[in-house]
Amino acid sequence: MAVFCNGRASLLRCLLTGSVLSLGMGCQAFAAEFPVLTGEVVTELQNEYTVDSDDAATDGYNNMFMRTEVAPTLRFNDYFFVDGVLVFEPILDHDGYESNYFDAEGAFIEEVKLNYENGPLTAFVGKFNPGFGIAWDFGRGIWGEDFAEDYEITERIGFGGAYKYEDAKIGAHTLTLSTFFADTTLLSESVGTKRGNNDKADGGVSNTEDFSSFVVALEGEALAGIENLYYKLGYRNQEEGDADIGGDNETGFVVSLGHSMSITDRVGVDVLTEYVDIENFEGGADDNQYFTTSVITTIDEQWNVTVGYTSRDIDRASSDVEDYLLQLSTGYDFGQGTTAELGWRSSEESGIDTNIVGGLIRHSFEF
Description:
This protein is mostly beta strands.
């Protein structure tokens, strides 16, 4: 019997069900002859229209773009497999004063790694995204992850391992440790719109080409035996880049807690809260704190209403910055992997208030 997890959303859910694929939301088990190729494709079309802003030049600005993730897994036997993530999305920041329609999009390899699994023990080596927090992952409204993506760690070269412990009374828990450096290989380039190879001379945290940066995380679900109560704790240490002058090591921790439950036979709720504190953010002098909370209400497993709020406090020597992002969206699941959402986003960033309306269509399928 071989176990596979397909998708992006969380290593947690796969580890807790007996698989170590780092790409999984849906896990399925079936007997198969090796080698076996499986995977999932998720593609999104998103449009955002700026209704009003304190920066009057952006009023009426429209931003339309696509994002696609292809997540294949090639399993060689019961112990070894290779998995990865290919991403197609806007590569360069767009001009905020000129409407954007599919400009500057390109493709790149975000993850590719060799994995080993044997009972509760797992190990991996290659290019991967060290898992720090979960609020940056998509699926909680249209813009729920926008601020949280600040602290997502992606495209690192290194290795790691995990151990899973499961008990009916205290739940299932997984301890993961990884060490890494920023990708400076040919895999840091993109096709289509070019972003250029990352180089050691470019600097930036963990751009050291040695294993001086690390993330350690403890995550689990059915905490204390409570069904669908999940959590994640994490600590990060990213060494200042070798090319940085006057920089500092970036350190930080994250605490995440969530619970999904049924209110009635027709109504379900999923609540997530996450707090992050990072010192010397990106190797600079700023200390950043993030607090995210979101609530997804589902009706008849087809309709959903999502409310999300994130505060971002930036402590600076000169003056502190207090940003916020509030999003409200409603969506419908058409079945067969297709969903659609409409919503409103209100935010304050560096003292500038902006209101945006927009929509998102997402389609996913497995192969």
